[in-house]
Design brief:
heterodimer, A: alpha+beta, Uridine Diphospho-n-acetylenolpyruvylglucosamine Reductase, domain 3, Enolase-like, domain 1, four-stranded antiparallel beta sheet, 14 strands, 35% helix, B: alpha+beta, Aldehyde Oxidoreductase, domain 3, Aldehyde Oxidoreductase, domain 4, 3 domains, 19 helices, globular
Chain lengths: 290, 764
């Protein structure tokens, strides 16, 4: 483990640090749950860690509910997401995903921003955020902030759209305050019940009106493709239908639409056929348990 | 009438518990000596290759490096009980663990960096990774040091038989033949392997701070390999962070560490990283068991035919000898009129297998108990009933010659059948509608040695007890504490016998220069053997103290009672403090020292060449009933409840016992459901906890434990060994439960969600 460390406390200092390290190797450190493993391997090469843990800017560190949107700072930990009342009632899927992330110790330090920027196809909070059609708010060292959909943020395994001189500031979930009935969960399948890396994951957030008709559906799948996928046609299939009226053949039809977004591989954790079968079964289960 | 006991049987916290939870315990990794260097080992890059050249010159020149050694620099003998294992490998490598060179440097980082500077030129060869391939006629010999007297690429074979197989076959109404495939799993000790060697060039003495479970055999093995006088080797055991059988043999990193220290004249420590631990520490042996069993129309078992092929890996460690224990299960668990058993350990270019809690018994129990379920099915018998019909009993002498002076097998079965509410649940499962979740219960029993195992020339243990002038007792025991709680149990026994408070008892057990001989921690033997040894020493001590006390109290020895730090007279009620008695003895004329020693040897037999004989001083029996729920959408198995009935002889420390039961069941669950060290073409594919899955706290079911007390006369207070038993039936019971729940046959481990879902898909 051999690296330099800078710890900006203001956004101004942070952006300066990014600017100064342009063209050199640097990594952001927030919760360090992934980074530490990489640093362990780090030997002699020049590397700077820009430590975000001391950053004192509410736009990075807080959860704000502001009329039309929920803004979650990149440095917000999984534990804080789990404990946030507003998220619990409005977007429980994010709390459910955060609650299944790593272990309790990991959840106390792992951040939303880290989970997104690691760009693992097995990302937990990332999967929920794709289902919620959240957007990334990105700050460059110089110039104006930009915004893009979380699903577009992921370009491949451990590869994001973040440019060399950019930092992820927060994620934004568009919202409205109408009374809705929410059917949601984060389904995480692995070999054991906790401290797992998903073999298959599904985040779903379905809203229904008083008549039980589905008005909004967001479904994202993880660990079955190089990036987390938003299962658009499966979402569209649900909108306008009544959740309680869907029979076995419709559940199968829906599950088949989800599976279309999967292109799983076989690796040490599971075979491709297993991921695909389980994705189908668990997609079906979404419509069974409500 | 059994004497009522004051401490034995009462929940007693571990003596060293406060040290462990407060972080004060000094583990091997905490050892730091003046001028200590850090050692690191360069291992093979390929599992099978010729080494054409090694160049260590760049590494040796790296500032901070004190020495680099290869096989050319050392004069050592081969390791292992088969003497087929060179400490440092020369000319070729045959296993991904193979040690090619070692470095000692001033820091760990420099040592690791130096390894990267060592240049090795390989000529890669095609390895052999399947025992079946190694047995082919044209297969090359894998281990050139193998004696080969049992056949090419065969490290060790075992043959056992009793009874008339053909006669029993003729009596059989049903015959079931199946193949069982068991994977490679590893111990996952919280503390990774570590040793610190301190060689003094001035007097030629070597001190090893080692986490070995068998310090005296280790001392002997180390001396043989290093060509030293064993008495010049002192083995000190720091607090050990997990053994489970992994520290029963000596491995190359240990003499390598000694060699580095001998070369440098400075202390050297080698500590594995977690990844190195996965790659280079021993495993449970992967094996294929072909088992044929029969039963008559009433469900009485008739015969067992067993053929086992074990993947030995490239060198031989204790894994090859687990057949010794495996055959006991086939010969003697349940009614077994005839048995023929053949096992062979076959060399491959895979990592080699060592010993692991249960010593082959989880594998043999898995095969036997699966076959029993299949026979029950074929005979349309209840799965609990067929086991009860065949249960072992008190006074039984088995075909192999094991003598069950006590036997709680049937009680254990009856208990778990009743406590699990099996009869009612069985009806419920049957009536349950076909749904996503399937539930069922599975049973399995086990038999294991529980009073030592007479394999080495002595199965004994020595103890010295010293009572000081102030009434404190020091127990110097040959046995070792590896977290199993032996110190506490020994102190409890002394407290019981001498009436000295636990806080005034110390157990010394970590230094071969001080403690008397003991064969080591294995075979669930320590409470039994070290306990009896301690009781022998205390008996001798009392023989010194009691006459003086009786005279002083003007009573008979039989009338004395040791309690509360005093020796009292039961009839008069008068008493004298025990420390006063000691002082009087120490300072009287003639002076008498209050210190005594005793060597205990279990009254067991060496087995004959056919492995027949009563090998242990007592036998443990256990039955488990395990209820599972299987998710047919994902293949995930949820273990709901585990019911454990175990013949422990007598409960000594209920807290320690429960720890063994819970720990064993959980370890068995990992073996059953999630754990596998995946080795592909000789390379370990998942050397991290990220991909090697041990159960987490959330996976742990309710574990209901019902001790069966059979009061075995041979054991201390009637107790038997308990340590290995709780994990042995667990994988079998879970496999039976999952098979029953799904109507499929699970004949391999681990039952990962994927393997279970595959079984569902393949269901006819």
């Amino acid at each position: 483990m051999n690296f330099d460390l800078v710890s900006p406390t203001t956004t101004e200092d942070l952006l300066r640090a990014i600017d100064e390290h342009r063209g050199r190797r640097f990594r952001f450190g927030a919760g360090y749950t992934d980074l530490l493993l990489d640093l362990e391997e780090q030997q002699d090469n020049e590397l700077t860690v820009i430590n975000l843990a001391r950053l004192n800017d509410p736009s990075f560190t807080s959860i704000v509910h502001d009329g039309g949107e929920m803004r979650i700072g990149a440095l917000v930990t999984a534990s804080r997401i789990i404990a946030d009342r507003k998220l619990q009632s409005r977007y429980p899927v994010l709390c459910q995903a955060a609650g299944q992330h790593g272990s309790r110790q990991i959840r106390h330090t792992a951040t939303v921003g880290g989970n997104l920027c690691t760009a693992s196809p097995a990302g937990d909070m990332a999967c929920a955020l794709v289902a919620l059609r959240a957007r990334c708010d990105i700050l460059p060292a110089r110039g104006d902030a930009r915004s893009l959909a979380v699903s577009d943020f992921f370009l491949g395994v451990r590869e994001t759209d973040l440019k060399e001189d950019e930092v992820l500031r927060r994620v934004i979930i568009p919202t409205d305050d109408g009374e809705v009935k929410t059917h949601s969960d984060f389904i995480k399948i692995g070999k054991r019940r906790s401290m797992e890396c998903a073999v298959v994951s599904i985040a779903y957030h379905i809203e229904s009106d008083g008549d039980d008709t589905m008005t909004r559906a967001g479904i994202a799948i993880g660990s079955v493709a190089p990036t987390i996928k938003y299962a658009r046609s499966a979402c569209e299939y649900l909108v306008g239908k009544r959740l309680s009226s869907l029979g076995p053949s419709e559940r199968d039809e829906f599950a088949a639409k989800v599976v279309e977004y999967a292109s799983p591989i076989s690796d040490i954790r599971a075979s491709a056929w297993y991921r695909e079968d389980v994705l189908f079964n668990m997609s079906k289960s979404i419509l069974e348990n409500h | 009438m059994k004497k009522s006991l004051k401490v034995i049987g009462k929940p007693t916290p571990k003596l060293d518990g406060h040290l462990r939870v407060s972080g004060k315990a000094v583990y091997g990794h905490d050892i730091s000596l003046p001028n200590m260097l850090y050692g690191a080992i360069l291992r093979a890059q390929y599992p099978c290759a010729k080494i054409k050249a090694i160049d260590v010159s760049k590494a040796a020149k790296l500032p901070g490096v004190v020495c680099v050694i290869t096989a050319d620099d050392v004069d050592v003998a081969h390791m292992s009980h088969k003497r087929d294992h060179p400490v440092l490998k020369k000319g070729e490598v045959n296993c991904i663990r193979d040690e090619i060179a070692a470095v000692a440097a001033s820091t760990k980082e420099i040592a690791r960096k130096a390894l990267r500077l060592i240049e090795v030129e390989y000529e890669v060869r095609e390895g052999i990774f399947d025992p079946a391939d190694a047995l082919q006629e044209d297969a090359p010999g894998i281990n050139k040091y193998a004696r080969g007297d049992e056949g090419k690429n065969i490290a060790q074979t075992f043959h056992y038989e009793h009874g008339d197989i053909e006669e029993q076959k003729a009596k059989s109404t049903c015959i079931v033949k199946r193949r069982y495939v068991l994977p490679r799993v590893t111990h996952c000790c919280l503390e990774t392997s570590v040793v610190t060697a301190d060689y003094s060039q001035s007097d030629g003495r070597l001190t090893l701070y080692s986490s070995t479970q068998v310090p005296f055999l280790y001392q002997r093995d180390m001396a043989r390999v290093l060509k030293m006088d064993p008495s010049n080797i002192r083995v000190v055991q720091p607090v050990i962070g997990g053994g489970f059988g992994s520290k029963l043999d000596m491995y190359p990193f240990e003499p390598i560490c000694a060699l580095l220290s001998m070369t440098c004249g400075q202390p050297v420590q080698i500590a594995f990283s977690r990844e190195e631990e996965f790659v280079a520490s021993p495993t449970r042996q992967a094996m294929v068991i072909d088992l044929t069993t029969g039963a008559d129309a009433e469900g009485r078992f008739t015969f067992r035919e067993v053929e086992i092929t074990k993947d030995n890996g490239a060198y031989t460690s204790w894994g090859a000898t687990t057949s010794f224990v495996m055959m006991q299960t086939f010969s003697s668990l349940y009614h077994a009129p005839a048995c023929v058993f053949d096992a062979r350990a076959v060399y491959t270019n895979n990592p080699y297998a060592g010993s692991f809690r249960g010593y082959g018994n989880p594998q043999s129990t898995f095969a036997l108990e699966r076959n029993i379920d299949l026979m029950a099915e074929e005979l349309a018998m209840d799965r609990a009933a067929i086991r009860l019909v065949n249960a072992n009993y008190k006074g039984e002498k088995t075909g192999q010659g094991l003598e069950y002076a006590t036997c709680g097998h049937k009680d254990a079965l009856d208990t778990v059948i009743a406590k699990s509410d099996y009869t009612r649940k069985k009806r419920e499962y049957k009536d349950a509608p076909s749904a996503r979740y399937k539930r069922a219960m599975g049973f399995a029993s086990m038999l294991h040695v529980a009073g030592g195992a007479k394999i080495y020339r002595s199965d004994g243990c020595g103890t010295t007890v010293k009572l000081d002038n102030f009434g404190h007792l020091i127990i110097i025991t040959g046995s070792s504490e590896i977290g199993q709680g032996s110190e506490t149990v020994l102190a409890m026994m002394a407290c019981e016998e001498l009436g000295i408070d636990m806080s005034k008892i110390k157990v010394i057990n970590t230094d071969t220069d001080i403690k008397p001989w003991d064969v080591g921690v294995h075979a669930s033997r320590t409470s039994f053997v070290a306990g009896n040894s301690l009781l022998g020493a205390i008996g001798r001590l009392k023989d010194k103290i009691s006459p003086w006390a009786a005279r002083y109290l003007k009573t008979d020895i039989e009338d004395l009672d040791y309690d509360n730090g005093e020796i009292g007279c039961k009839t008069s009620g008068r008493s004298v403090k025990i420390d006063k008695v000691v002082r009087e003895l120490h300072f009287q004329d003639p002076n008498v020292l209050c210190m005594e020693s005793y060597y205990y040897e279990p009254a067991s037999d060496f087995q004959d060449a056919g492995y027949k004989g009563n090998v242990s001083g007592a036998y443990a029996f256990a039955s488990q009933a395990i209820e599972v729920e299987v998710d047919t959408y994902t293949g995930q198995v949820k273990v709901l409840d585990v019911y454990v009935g175990q013949d422990v002889g007598r409960v000594l420390n209920p807290l320690g016992l429960m720890g063994q039961i819970e720990g064993g069941v959980v370890m068995g669950m990992g073996y059953a459901l999630t754990e596998e060290l995946v080795v592909a073409k000789g390379q370990v594919v998942n050397p991290t906890f990220h991909n090697y899955k041990i159960p987490s706290a959330c996976d742990i079911p309710e574990i209901h434990f019902y001790p069966i007390e059979t009061h075995d006369q041979a054991g201390p207070y009637g107790a038997k060994g308990v340590g290995e038993a709780p994990l042995i039936p667990t994988p079998a019971a879970i496999a039976n439960a999952v098979s029953n729940a799904l109507g499929v046959e699970i004949n391999a481990l681990p039952m990962t969600p994927e393997n279970v879902l595959k079984a569902i898909k393949d269901r006819p």
